[in-house]
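Second attempt. The first submission of W2 domain-containing protein had a stray character pasted in from the spreadsheet, which I only caught after the job came back as garbage. Lesson logged: always re-copy from the clean sequence file. Corrected sequence (248 aa) follows.
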Amino acid sequence: MASNIPVPSKMTTEGNASENWKRTKNWRRKPKSKATAKAPISNDDQRAALDKRPLGERAKFAEVLKPMNQNKKNSMFLSSNSESTADWRKLRDNLAKILQADPDEAMEEAHAFLAKIEGSVSKKAFIEIVTMAVIKASLKDGKLVGRQINKFDKLILKYVDNTEDLELICLFAIKNFVVKEAALELSVLTESFRNLYDDSIISVEAFKKWKDDTSIEPLESEGRLLATKTLEPFYVFLAEADDEEEES
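This time the job returned cleanly.
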């Protein structure tokens, strides 16, 4: 007996299958997510990103960061965040007080203090804290006391560890402290560099790079040209020392 139920044609069956497949595919497709605005990069993140770059690339990398966070001033040497800068200076001043308090026990206490804070700040900030504290602790009436810095600069040697990038951070920290922050006599800058050279704390290569590589900090930067001019006698001495070494 013939059935009265109509049999769908092949085309109709395929069409339905196609429609079913499309519906299944659309059902599985994830809805498009709405674009969200990127949060501005914090000063700490900017500083961490700069710290990972070789010193010679930091100025260029800082330029890349500027349009991402127009309202915040980037610096490759000091944080622009006033709160973190205040904390940073407090640590530096505390270390300087430790060094000045008891000359016989100062170094042991200083190492213990630095061991506590080393992981809480970036490597660059840490070297700046050590360097500026050493210079500050070596001052008397605004002048550098040679026997003091000769005792304390071993702290710098321990933490820069003959690493050129860290040595450069140290030299720029001295320049920033003497010329920009503390506004000390410029002789302190020259004497600091000379003592670090005489005590073999900073390599000759780092001293030369500080002077010659203006991509790290352009001459028009605050205090840079003044510091470079002030240190001309030191660099004449350095060149003469090189010549004597080559002749011997």
